[in-house]
Amino acid sequence: MKPSNRWLVVAVFFFFMLLHQADKLLIGPLTTPIMQTFGIDEAQMGAVFTGALIVGSILYPLWGYLYDRFARAKLLALASFIWGATTWISAIAPTYPTFLATRASTGIDDSSYPGLYSLIADYFGPHVRGRIYGLLQLAQPLGYMLGLIAATALVGAMGWRGVFYVTGLLGIVLAVVILFAVREIPRGRSEPELAALEQIGVYRFDKQIALALFRKRTLLLLFAQGFVGVFPWNTITYWFFRYLETERHYSPDAVLMTMAPAILVLAAGYFVGGALGDFAFKRTPRGRVIVCLIGVLTGAILLGITMSVPIANQGLFLVLLLFTALFIPFAAANVTSTVYDITLPEVRSTAMAVQYFIESSGAALAPLIAGLIAVRASLHDAILLICVSTWILGSIFLAFTARVVPHDIETLRGQLRERAARERAAQRV
Question: Whole-angstrom Cα distance, residue 184 to residue 4?
Fold first, then answer.
């Protein structure tokens, strides 16, 4: 049984992620005017980036538990409201210390995505989730581009504070939309073993099941890969604009003409990676992880080549940057889908929250580390060193993941078959 409004839910969540990412990531293109306002250097600005990331990472386990325990749709509406309110607070900060503190508070809602992905998993079955997650996750780079356009178009007229006022308002509007448009659905509704049942039981967070997550080899390897895998994203997100401005000497128009097509290709990479993962998963349970591995290794090689292009050759730099942007998001939708391929529905938000907590707990330091390296060397060295080294290390973890994932997938399918048999027996009584 397929919920009739599931594409409406996808549309609402797509716009939530699009506008939330625009708000979260537009601080990248606004970095220079913010630094000028407070008279700070790269290391101090890196602390601003890292503060929000640390707050977000600390709260992942709490959000994960809440999503598995209570109604996910209402909690997502709350997260959207928090996004709007904290963005407004950071916009009025008068000094660097207060801006540092208030910008950190914007990380509260950044850890809200596990519930979104968990709810989507109950609307769509396992063999199409990669495409759906890829579709939703392409909102992240599109939000980045929207933030770039908003920063470029509006900062001159209303300043960086005014831009934050606009995006904060959008968060509050979306909170109302989610509250009234998104319907909660029973956990596990879309699983093939349970989909044919007229009614299924109510499954909520279970401590013992949650603790058992840490005995799954696939999850432990994905946690290890995630710890290093987000270092490149946080480094590129927060420092690549300034790298183009200060070290490749791009004008604002040149930055826009370079980053806009790169972000569009990056967005396509999320969906392409998710679709390839679904295609490969139908043929082998290792399929999604193999696609992840290809994307990570290819991205590392291409970024190294791209960063070595002479500053004067902007055309070749753009072409290589586009190829790099296509491959580096391949892992995103497939990691999310793989986590849900091996976990029971009532602990999926918790599993994804732990994954994100581990990713963020390490990578939260990436902007600060990059800033410190830049002060002593250059942003070129910081970006290249952090990205290539962590992607190569992550690929090693993914190779081991591909070996063990079939066992954990079959274990889950067996658990769901047993659950379906119990449900049928109970309904016959």
Answer: 13
141's tokens: 């780079």
pLDDT digits (tens, 9 = 90+) for 155-194: 777 888 888 888 889 999 999 999 999 998 888 888 888 7
- The 10s digit of each residue's pLDDT in 75-131 is 999 999 999 999 989 888 889 999 999 899 988 988 888 999 999 999 998 989 999
Q: How many CB atoms lie under 10 A from the CB of residue 402?
A: 19
Domain limits, the chain: 6-428
> Which of these, 185, 10, 160, 178, lies nearest to 81 by C-alpha position?
178
Q: Considering Cα of 336, then 337, then 342, then 346, what sign does the dihedral take?
A: positive
> Contact at 8 Å (CB) between 43 and 368?
yes
Q: Which residues fall within 8 angstroms of residue 96, CB to CB, at 6 or more apart?
A: 38, 39, 40, 44
d(C-alpha 247, C-alpha 378), whole Å: 8
- Which three-class secondary structure state does DSSP give residue 125? coil
Classify residue 2 as exposed, middle or buried by CB count within 10 Å of its CB (0-12, 13-18, 19+).
exposed
Helix (H) or strand (E) holding 195: helix 192-195
Q: Which pLDDT tens digit goes with each residue over 316-333?
A: 999 999 999 999 999 999
The topology under which CATH files domain 6-428 is Growth Hormone; Chain: A; (1.20.1250)
Give which of 264, 229, 256, 227 is closest to 240, Cα–Cα.
Answer: 256
> Is 277's pLDDT higher than 90?
yes
